[in-house]
Amino acid sequence: MTHTQEGIDALGGGKMRHPRFQGKSAVVTGGASGIGLGIVRGLISEGATVTIGDFNPTTLEEVAQEFGSSVKTLLVDVRSEDDIIALMQLATSDGPLSVAFNAAGIGEGAPIFEQELAQWNKVVDICLTGVFLAVKHESKAMLKSGGSIVNIASINSEVPAYGATAYSVAKAGVQMVTKNAALDLGAYGVRVNAIAPGIVNTPMSIRTGHGTQVVINKWLEKTPLGRIGQPGDIASAALFLASDEASWITGETLFVDGGLTLTAYPDLRDVT
Q1: Per its UniProt record, what Pfam families does this chain match (predicted)?
Q2: Mapping DSSP to helix (H, G, I), strand (E, B) and coil, where does residue 19 land?
Q3: Residue 12 pLDDT greater than 90, yes or no
């Protein structure tokens, strides 16, 4: 078994030797599926109580049934400041908030000459404004006792892709929100970092046409480590950044992409 697989197995429910989040309270936006759910699984395996905000009532109910008293759930539209405030009230109802992860996002796009303003606004509002609102209110909950926030950006924060202007701009914004928030919050003992994933096997990837073998082969041609990412890969990195092991790291964006950005983003126009 490889070291990477051991990390994935642990996040999938294996017993951790030294739980880094024992007794701590965490919040995860977009936590009912994909990368967010991978983070939830990792947090629970390491002793945290997790509050999950997500827009999908069906997957929220499934998560609530799976994890029982280890989670609290709330139907949340991250574009709504009132919803984010309600999520923070739920997350802090039993004590202070220690860590937060912002994984809510949407993958839609079109060539810029076909980009509808409504779609642009939807992608930017969910992927960028939603992160701003979450960081704003998560940090408020941490000002007295400190804490750590991890945002999910994307390799598209620095690498363009055909038909992905809105998404790429939004994720670049997430990277800069992370840096500015780290400056504003450092004096309060609050760290803010980001993860930039490559292609990951999630429901969103499948919905956006990245789950077919033809498309996956295109990604693999450009990925030195030779495999598609799994939610556990991203969760491992995110939990490290949120933990005390990363206590002198803030304002950074960690690329977790199997080495993809060492080569070139694949041209997927002929297969999606």
Answers
A1: adh_short_C2
A2: coil
A3: no
CA distances from 225 to 18, 86, 185 (A): 28, 41, 36
Tokens of residue 146, six digits: 């400190």
Phi, psi of 182 (to 5 degrees): -60, -40
Residue 14 has pLDDT above 90, yes or no: no
Query: What residue ranges define each of the domains in the chain, with the CATH number in brackets?
Result: 12-256 (3.40.50.720)
The HSE-up count of residue 266 (CA atoms within 13 Å, CB side) is 21
Task: Indicate the pTM of the whole model.
Answer: 0.92
Q: State how far the Cα of 248 lies from the Cα of 213, in Å rounded to an integer.
A: 41
DSSP state at residue 251? S
| Residue 118, number of CB atoms within 10 A of its CB | 8
Helix (H, G, I), strand (E, B) or coil at 51: strand
Looking at 162, 167, 188, 265, which residue is catalytic?
167
Please write the tens of the pLDDT for every residue from 130-144.
Answer: 999 999 999 999 999
- Going 263 to 156 to 236 to 221, the CA torsion angle's sign is negative
